Amino acid sequence: MRLILLGAPGAGKGTQAEILSEMLSIPTISTGNILRAAVKEGTPVGLKAKALMDEGKLVSDDVIMGILEERLQKDDCKNGYILDGVPRTIPQAKAMKEMGIAVDTALSIEVEDEVIVERMGGRRTCPKCGNTFHVVYHPPKTEGVCDFCGSALTVRKDDKAETVKARLATYHADTEPLKAFYEAEGKLRSVDNQPTIELTTAEIKKALGI
Ligand code: AMP
Fold first, then answer.
1. Among 29, 23, 13, CA closest to 74
2. Where are the beta strands (DSSP E) in 47-144?
3. Among the options 36, 124, 156, 189, which is catalytic?
4. Is the CB of 12 under 6 A from ligand 1?
């Protein structure tokens, strides 16, 4: 299964990717998580990406393609992968095609903007392993502590209200057209956001036929 998750920032792609990853025994590749790690380590890519990320703008396609190509070469991607946050633009989708990166299905999680804005305020992220939680909808077992690695959870800088609005605008302008792109290839499946994570997972399983 080579799956792309589409959807606005905060639509639940990361959370659902984590669940599907375990269910299907394939890795999730999140360009956002890779970039945040690069920023933290202060690598050249991280230094280039930081300001753009803080403003809710997109990092350049060539940087993203380089990251993706390197990650997909690892052994764990042999039986499939889940791409979370990439492709983010039509040029990225075209570049992936040219590079021979296969996609079986593009799954779009549909959530209204107002719901996104409310949700992002409660999002907490693990700065070490990248897993995300929500204070109400997906709380960690111990408040403020990552279930997976025990690190203290933080609020992502780009989850601030003004940045969320900028990221939503970027999503509608640059990323949403990917739905038509994959629809034209007969690969698009869409699910509506449900009141709980479990119900959304159930819809996704139905849409994917798994
Ligand atoms: P995310 O965690 O997917 O919301 O990504 C956080 C930020 O990283 C985005 O707002 C962008 O600045 C950057 N980013 C992540 N993936 C991509 C991508 N495929 N193309 C361009 N920028 C990206």
1. 29
2. 81-84, 105-110, 123-125, 132-134
3. 156
4. no
Active site residue 156: yes
Give tens-digit pLDDT for 16-57: 999 999 999 999 999 999 999 999 999 999 999 999 999 889
- Closest residue to atom 10 of ligand 1, CA basis: 56
- The pLDDT > 70 percentage for the chain reads 100
**Interatomic CA distance for residues 125 and 11, integer angstroms:** 15
Pocket test for ligand 1, best of 31, 52, 92, 178 (most atoms within 8 A of CB): 31
**Among this protein's residues, is 119 annotated catalytic?**
no
37 lines ligand 1 (CB under 6 A): no
Identify the bridge partners of residue 152 per DSSP, sorted by sequence position: 145
Instruction: Write the pLDDT tens digit of every residue in 115-127.
Output: 999 888 899 999 9
- Cβ contact 178:90 at 8 Å: yes
3-class secondary structure, 93: helix
